[in-house]
From TrEMBL:
Organism: Paenibacillus polygoni
Superkingdom per UniProt: Bacteria
Protein's name according to its UniProt entry: MFS transporter
Signal peptide: none
Membrane topology designation: Multi-pass membrane protein
Transmembrane segments: 51-69, 81-99, 105-128, 140-158, 170-190, 233-253, 265-286, 298-317, 323-345, 357-379, 385-408
Length: 421
C-alpha cells in the first residue's frame, strides 16, 4: 500500500505534458505573431491594419468553433484530436513563410485557429480539472507559468532568427520544430481522464479522508441551461473580453517599440521576453492567490496592478529601463487571462457542467481578438501613435473591476434561487 502511495501519480505527467504543449503553442506560436508584423509589412508593402485582420479571422473562427470543441473532446480520442490540432496550428504557421500576399495569412489563419482552440484554450483547463481535485489554482498557474517561461525563451530566439534568417525561414523553422516536439508529448503524456489509467484524480483520497465536507462542493454547480441565463455569465464574458483586449496589445509591442519609440528589433524581442517572464511569475502568483484569497479578490488586484505599466508607458516609454519594467509588469497582469478565466468560471458556476460553460465563457477571448487586434493596428495607422490605445486599456481595466463585482453579485442571486445543486 505504501509502495503504491509513493508511486508518481500520472496526473503529474499530464501536468508536465499539457504545460509543454500549451507553452509551445500559446507561449511560442501565438505570442510570437507580433514579432513578424513589422518585417512582413515592410517586405511585402502591406498596411499594418490589413495584416492584423488575420488575427481577427482567427478570432472569428475560434468564436464559431469553441462551442463544438468541448463536445469533440468528450466524443473523440484526445490524443488523436490534439495531434491533428498541432499539425493544423503549427503547420499553418509554417505555411506563412511561403506567402507573398496578405490573403495567405487570411487563408491559413482558419486551420491555425481551429487547432489552437484545443491546444491553447480548451485542453489545459479541462485536463487539469479532470486530473486534479485539490490546488487547481496552483496547477493552472504552473501550466501558465511554463507557457510564460517557454515564451520568454522563444521570443529572443525567434527575434534573432528573423534578423539572421529572415521572416520566411523563421516561420517554417518554428512551425516544423513545434510539430516535432509536441506530437510525442501528446502521445506519451496526455490522457483525457484518470479512468483511462485506472486511477482516481490526484488528491481525491485526501479530499475524502481529510475533509469530507469538500466533496459536495467539488461536485455541485450550476447547470449550463441556468448559467447561460444569468447575469454572472455575461459579466464574466465581458471581463474576459476586456482582459483579452488588453492582452492583445502584446502583438503590437514590437511595432510600438520600433516604429513609435525608435528601439531596434532585437530590443523589442528582448522586451517581449520580459513580458513572458512577467507572465511566468504572474501565472504562479495568480494561481496561488486564487487558492488563498479567492478568484474575485485576485481578479480585482490584477486590474489595479495593470494600471501601473500603462502609466509607465504613457509617461516614460522613451526610457529603455522603464519600458522593460513596464513589459514585465504588463506580462504579469495579462497572465491572468489564462489563469483567472478557468478559475473564475469554476468559482462562479462550480464544476457540474464546467466544460460547456467554459466553452461559452471563452467566447469573450475570441471576440476580443476580432475587435482589438486590428483595431489597435488601424488606430496606429490613423494616428501614428499607440497613446490612444494605452488610454483605452486603462479604461478597460477600470471597467473590469466593475464586471467582477457584478459577476459575483450574479452568483449570489443564483445561490439564493437554489441554482447550485
Amino acid at each position: 500500500m505504501n509502495k503504491n502511495k509513493k508511486k508518481t501519480h500520472f496526473a503529474w505527467w499530464v501536468l508536465v505534458g499539457v504545460s509543454i504543449m500549451v507553452g509551445l503553442t500559446r507561449g511560442g506560436l501565438n505570442s510570437s505573431g507580433g514579432l513578424f508584423l513589422t518585417p512582413v509589412t515592410q517586405d511585402l508593402g502591406i498596411r499594418m491594419g490589413d495584416l492584423n485582420i488575420y488575427f481577427s479571422i482567427a478570432s472569428i473562427v475560434t468564436m464559431v468553433f469553441l462551442p463544438f470543441a468541448g463536445k469533440m473532446m468528450a466524443k473523440y480520442n484526445l490524443r488523436s484530436l490534439l495531434i491533428i490540432s498541432v499539425v493544423l496550428q503549427a503547420g499553418s504557421f509554417a505555411m506563412f513563410g511561403f506567402m507573398s500576399s496578405v490573403w495567405g495569412w487570411y487563408l491559413f489563419s482558419i486551420p491555425m485557429a481551429i487547432g489552437a482552440v484545443f491546444l491553447t484554450q480548451m485542453a489545459g483547463p479541462v485536463l487539469i480539472n479532470n486530473w486534479f481535485k485539490k490546488n487547481k489554482g496552483l496547477m493552472i498557474g504552473i501550466m501558465m507559468a511554463v507557457s510564460g517561461g517557454l515564451g520568454a525563451a522563444l521570443q529572443p530566439i525567434i527575434g534573432n532568427l528573423i534578423a539572421n534568417e529572415g521572416w520566411r525561414n523563421t516561420y517554417i523553422i518554428i512551425g516544423v520544430a513545434i510539430i516535432i516536439i509536441v506530437i510525442p508529448v501528446v502521445f506519451f503524456a496526455l490522457r483525457m481522464s484518470p479512468k483511462e489509467k485506472g486511477l482516481q484524480p490526484y488528491g481525491a483520497d485526501e479530499v475524502t479522508e481529510e475533509d469530507e465536507s469538500k466533496t459536495p462542493v467539488l461536485e455541485k454547480g450550476v447547470s449550463f441551461g441556468v448559467a447561460k441565463k444569468s447575469s454572472a455569465l455575461y459579466a464574466l464574458i465581458a471581463f474576459l473580453f476586456f482582459i483579452t483586449a488588453i492582452g492583445c496589445f502584446a502583438q503590437h509591442v514590437p511595432t510600438f517599440a520600433v516604429k513609435q519609440l525608435g528601439y531596434d528589433g532585437i530590443f523589442a524581442s528582448n522586451a517581449m521576453a520580459g513580458w513572458m517572464v512577467g507572465a511566468l511569475l504572474g501565472a504562479l502568483a495568480f494561481g496561488f492567490l486564487t487558492d488563498k484569497i479567492g478568484a474575485r479578490n485576485t481578479a480585482i488586484f490584477a486590474m489595479i496592478l495593470g494600471l501601473v505599466p500603462v502609466t509607465i508607458l504613457l509617461t516614460s516609454a522613451e526610457n529603455s529601463v522603464m519600458f522593460s519594467i513596464a513589459m514585465v509588469i504588463f506580462g504579469f497582469v495579462v497572465s491572468s487571462i489564462g489563469t483567472l478565466g478557468p478559475l473564475l468560471t469554476s468559482a462562479l458556476f462550480g464544476n457540474k457542467e464546467y466544460s460547456q460553460i467554459y466553452a461559452i465563457v471563452a467566447l469573450g477571448l475570441a471576440v476580443a481578438g476580432i475587435v482589438a487586434l486590428p483595431g489597435y493596428g488601424y488606430i496606429y495607422d490613423a494616428t501614428g501613435s499607440y497613446t490612444p490605445v494605452l488610454i483605452g486599456i486603462a479604461c478597460m481595466m477600470v471597467i473590469n473591476i466593475i464586471m467582477i463585482i457584478l459577476a459575483f453579485n450574479g452568483k449570489k442571486k443564483l445561490e439564493k434561487a437554489g441554482a447550485f445543486n
